[in-house]
Amino acid sequence: MKKKIIIILGTVLVIIILFIAFYFAGLKAVSKNETKIIFVINAGDSKADIINALAASGLIKSKISAYIYVGLHQNLNLQAGEYELSENMSLEEILANFNNGKVVEKDNTFSLTFVEGKKLKDYAQIIANATNTSKEEVINTLADKTYLQELIEKYWFLTDDILNEEIYFPLEGYLFADTYEFYQGSSIKNIVEKMLDEMGNILDEYSSFISESSYNVHEILTLASIVEVEGSNSDDRAGVAGVFYNRLENNWSLGSDATTYYAAQVDFSERDLYMSEINDINAYNTRPAAMAGKLPVGPICTPSKESIYAALNPSKHDYYYFVADKTGKTYFTKTNAEHNNMVASLKANGLWYEYN
Question: What is the pTM of this model?
Answer without folding.
Answer: 0.72
